[in-house]
Structure formats: C-alpha cells, structure tokens
Amino acid sequence: MIPLIALLLAAEDPAAHCVTLTRGDPAEAERIAERWSLAGGGSKAKQCLGLALTAQSRYADAAAAFEAAAHLAETEKDAQAATYWAEAGNARLAANDPIKARAALDAALAAGALTGLPLGEVHLDRARALVATGDMTGARADLDAATHDAADDPLAWLLSATLARRMNDLPRAKSDIAEALKRASDDAQVQLEAGNIAALAGDAAGARTAWTNAQRLAPSAPAGIAAGQALAQFDTPTGAK
To answer: How many Å from the N-terminal Cα to the C-terminal Cα in the chain?
Structure first.
C-alpha cells in the first residue's frame, strides 16, 4: 500500500488534498501534516496541520500551527500570510484567547492582502475580540467595516445590532437586526436578539413574537432557552410581585 504522505505529495494540489483528508480523518491528517512539514512542506503543511487540529477542536494548538504558517509565508514572501493570520485569529477566539486573537487579526489586516468577504470576516473576528476585551469603540469601527465587506454574512449584522443595543443606540440596533433577519430569519440567535431589541423599544408584541420564534427554532440551544426565560415574563400575572 502506498503511504498517504506519498499520495499527498504526489497530488496535483497537496493543500486541497489535505483539506479533503481533514474532513474525513482529521487525526490521520494531523499525522500526515507533521510528516509533510518535516519533508519541507513549508507554510502549506503548517496550514494543513492547523486545519486538522481545528477539526479536532484543539483550537490553541491549531492557532499555533496557523501562526507558524504565517511566519513561514512571510519569510517566503507569500501573500497567503494574511489568510494564515486570519485563521490563527479565528482559532484563538475559539480557544477563548481574545488578546492573542487580536494580535493575529491585527497582523492579518496589516498585511494589506485581503479584500472583499475575507477582509470583512477578519474585521468581524477582530470586533469579537475587542468586545471580549472591553473595547466597544474599536469593535464598533470593525463591525462597520464588516457589514460593508461581509454584508451577506448575517453574523456581521447580528453582532452589529447587539453591540448597538448594548451601547443604547436603538435606531442602529433596529436597522441592523432587520438586515440580519433578511438573511437568517431561521436563526434562533437572530430571533432572540430581535426580541431583545423589540423589548428595549417597548414593543412587547414584537418581542414576544421574536422570542417565540427563537424558542421554536432551537428549544434546547442556549438561544432558545434564553428566549423561553424571556417569555416567562408574559406568564406573570399583572400586579404580581
């Protein structure tokens, strides 16, 4: 039997072959990526390793692999370094490390190679990191960029609406949650936030409808449970203490 590492290196596009293997057997993909790296696979081998580790929910290790890929790509003068930094930042967020996530995402943006949707997604991730570290003003700027460059991503509009609500900017919150609903009305998190914003606006009927939708869409998920708790207030008799 021909070793998988030989098949990988013989493939027309080893990186694409690695992605396919990662989806089917991430542990084997990890082993092959390690050997590919030792065989001189460079930044692409490190990215393959990061993807394999991500598929196993080993996010901190994955981030380190993506960061190694980015450093190698910078040495190789490869514009893909920005993509690797973006992947590292996303993995750091998944590992609940917003400070290191921001550093990686700053590097992704500083490279100046990203445009369109990939650029918007980096701004979105950096906004998440900034919110986690308490920088709401910085997060607002990044979410403005995200809703421009990643306008088709409902998460950008959802997070923008949520931040606007937290910053007591009700008009912006209502406008942005409407955009999120256009793109993902079947998402319980979007419906939950729509209910929260309606409640803040004094629209009890709208809040109840949105929270009911959230609970129906995902009754056992955190958004559905939170919606159910919010709906409980409507079951409290008027004047009850």
So the answer is: 74
pLDDT at 240 > cutoff 80: no
Each residue's pLDDT tens digit, 30-79: 998 998 999 899 999 999 999 999 999 999 999 999 999 999 999 989 99
Distance from C-alpha of 81 to C-alpha of 226, rounded to nearest angstrom: 40
Which of 182, 141, 178 lies closest to 163, judged by CA?
Answer: 141
Which of the 8 DSSP states describes residue 234? G
Structure tokens at 121: 């997604």
The pTM assigned to this predicted structure is 0.88
From CA 224, how far away is CA 138, in angstroms rounded? 30
Residues 239 and 211: their CA atoms lie apart, in Å, by 23
* Full DSSP string of 147-175: HHHTTT-HHHHHHHHHHHHHTT-HHHHHH
Write down all domains in the chain, each with its CATH number in brackets. 21-104 (1.25.40.10), 115-176 (1.25.40), 185-234 (no CATH)
| pLDDT tens digit sequence for 192-228 | 999 999 999 999 999 999 999 999 999 999 999 999 9
**Ramachandran quadrant class, 42 (left: phi over 0; alpha: psi -120 to 50; beta: rest):** left
Cα–Cα distance, 135 to 157 (Å, whole number): 18
